[in-house]
Design goal:
The chain has 283 residues and is α+β, with helices and mostly antiparallel strands. Helix content is 51%, strand content 15%. A hairpin with a 2-residue loop joins strand 1 and strand 2. Helix 1 packs antiparallel against helix 4. The two termini are 33 Å apart.
Length: 283
């Protein structure tokens, strides 16, 4: 909430105090907190607006926050009323769209809340890894050069006893891994480009590969070790699994609503270019 009215309301409230504030047990969302030319501003409206504020403002003293929010709603009411008959069809359409979007979001919150549970997350996790084949991970190093001739020359040096890490530091064009002696760390299938991956899978541990070409240049690769990758813990995949469950739940719910709804689509016969005609909104 960025309007100057809100800040002004907070500034005024900061130097005022509420004498003997009374909290009535029978207050409701419809309890009137102010009127503006006969239009009511209610306690419920104030509470809902408070919920949209950042934590920084929600942490303000209650009396400061109360006065600031009330002043903001009063100003908004006056500004709305000042429009009189100047509210356009475009304005009314925007209000309708905003209402529809907000309420559809509320409907989906209920769907998602019911679908994403500890039990459903565990079930999705188990389903993903129940029949999954063990995956091998590789710890490898490489030296990258621009041409095949350079790669062959470097391989000759290595075959002659040159130190792999030292050559990587001085000759590899992959400066990131080169600084670490060519070490690429651990990686699994799909992490590297296809020619590189194929060479790694075919390589024997400790042996130097022949020069391998990729889009990056020519590689000489040495696989240091391999291991069977453990399945990641559920917590590492929680957000990903939740997103999948949400998507399926929303699609299923929309299908149920669609199957039960009476829907016509005369707009499918419209010229799609009509979407760009801004003058239609004012007709």
């Amino acid at each position: 909430m960025k309007s100057t009215g809100f800040w002004r309301g907070l500034a005024v409230a900061a130097v005022l105090s509420i004498a003997s504030p009374a909290v009535a047990e029978d207050m409701t969302a419809d309890t009137v907190a102010a009127t503006v030319n006969g239009t009511n501003i209610t306690l419920g409206q104030m509470i809902v607006l408070r919920g949209t504020l950042s934590e920084q403002y929600q942490a303000l003293p209650d009396d400061v926050l109360f006065k600031g929010i009330l002043e903001q709603l009063i100003q908004q009411a006056m500004l709305e009323q000042s429009l009189g008959d100047k509210i356009t069809k475009r304005d009314l359409i925007a209000v309708e769209n905003n209402k529809r979007g907000y309420l559809s979001g509320i409907a989906l919150q209920a769907v998602v809340g019911a679908a994403v549970t500890d039990a459903s997350l565990q079930a999705a996790y188990d389903a993903r890894f129940k029949d999954a084949a063990p995956q091998t991970e590789y710890h490898a190093a490489h030296i990258l050069v621009a041409t095949e001739e350079e790669a062959k020359a470097v391989k000759a040096e290595l075959d002659g006893g040159a130190d792999f890490a030292e050559i990587a530091k001085t000759k590899s064009t992959d400066t990131g891994s080169g600084a670490n002696g060519g070490d690429l760390g651990w990686f699994g299938k799909g992490a590297m480009v296809k020619p590189f991956e194929d060479a790694v899978i075919a390589a024997k541990v400790g042996e130097l590969t022949a020069p391998i070409k990729s889009d990056f240049g020519w590689h000489l690769i040495k696989v240091a070790e391999t291991r069977i990758a453990a399945a990641p813990p559920l917590d590492d995949l929680r957000d990903e699994l939740a997103a999948e469950i949400e998507k399926k739940a929303i699609e299923a719910h929309i299908k149920i609503l669609t199957d039960a709804a009476a829907i016509t689509r005369p707009g499918m016969e419209f010229d799609p270019k009509a979407l760009r005609d801004e003058t239609i909104v004012d007709k």
